[in-house]
Amino acid sequence: MSFDVETIRAEFPILQRQVNGRPLVYLDSAASAQKPVAVMEAMTHATRTAYANVHRGLHTLANETTDAYERARESVRGLINAASASEIVFTKGATEAINLVASSFGQSLLPGDEIVLTQMEHHANIVPWHFLRRSRGVVLRFAPVLDDGRLDVAALGELIGPRTRMVAVTHMSNVLATVNPIAEIAAMAHAAGSLLLVDGCQAVVHQRVDVQALDVDFYVFSGHKLYGPTGIGALYGKAALLADLPPYQGGGEMIESVTLEDVTYADPPHRFEAGTPAILEAIGLGAAIDWLQGLDRDAVAAHEHALYERVKERLNGANWLTEMGTAPGKGAIFSFNVDGAHAHDVAQLLDRYGVAVRAGSHCAEPLMRRFGVSASARASFALYNTLAEADAFVDALLKTRTFFA
Ligand code: 7TS
User: Fold this and answer.
1) Domain range 40-293, its CATH number among 3.40.50.1010, 3.40.640.10, 1.10.3720.10, 3.40.50.1860
2) For residue 368, what are the contacts with CB-CB under 8 A and spacing of at least 6?
3) By CB neighbour count within 10 A (0-12 exposed, 13-18 middle, 19+ buried), where does 40 fall?
4) Is the minimum distance from the CB of 124 to ligand 1 under 6 angstroms?
5) pLDDT in tens, 261-320
6) For the chain, what are the domain ranges?
7) 199 lines ligand 1 (CB under 6 A)
């Protein structure tokens, strides 16, 4: 299989539009990716031809919709090579998935139990654990990040001890693009009797993930960064662990039986999917995964890396700019600050040239503090970006630079 970026681009109608009189250069896919026609059509097709509530009906449309919803679960299973589709829980996204684990698993925690995180986590993988710090007296420990953006894995190992109940780390940083050595961290967590949760929001988009090979206990991601819809994401949990977790929310579809006196719960994954789920969005996510899996993912990764390398090469020697995160093997995200300029101003000026980048703390305030900045600008590359766009970004940045020099 090969990979042709122009063929791919034709599947993303939004990429044809203009912004401020220029062709759109969309470099904000780490926040949310654009969607191919296949995803839109899957959702429209379901809406037009086979839509009803899931898991409730004995009628044809309900059964067809349920089948489509469960096929999407199977697509998620295949994407991350889970052993069984019953290990996949649909959630609103990564944020809800982490909240689910923190809230449900957290019920077993005692004061003084420890959760080990890292300085490079997105707030989604910090704040739910702070809830447990406040409500249950658990202790949070943060593994440091080295100057080049690598995780200090040795220091992480030293933080893991007999009271550690959960290690929760990102697979790939949304700011630094550092890819963390998950299998190694899993071995360290398990040797201490701890569980491991991995935030796969960024990694799952850019590399093959095998939750069994990595031996992670929980893995989470969002659909909208994976070329799928918003409002849908997934939690993977090992079957034996999900079986022991209490539910997160109560309502329809998550019960085995309800009486006035008591309630018994359904088995996973339904135990964790209270209420009518995001049916069409799940179908859209399934379509996004099937679409992505139809591509040569190694060729996609090589293409994305080439875009990042192009930017690096063109900005080589620029002493007015500081890149955040230069770890070996990092992903295709270029986070930076221009001397004398606020990242917000840089982003707004780039927008004049049609170039969309994100600027701010990227929901990673502890990481910003670690690097002594309040914000950074971030160009994140996706499979539909071209070398010409990488050049357009650098050209616009060079023009922007004259405002601050
Ligand atoms: N974890 C990581 C590593 C992320 O990058 C994000 C979103 C989340 C968790 C939360 O995902 P959600 O879909 O539940 O919101 N990251 C970003 C970003 O980098 N810019 O906007 C959102």
Assistant:
1) 3.40.640.10
2) 361, 362, 374, 375, 376
3) middle
4) yes
5) 999 999 999 999 999 999 999 999 999 999 999 999 999 999 999 999 999 999 999 999
6) 40-293, 296-401
7) yes
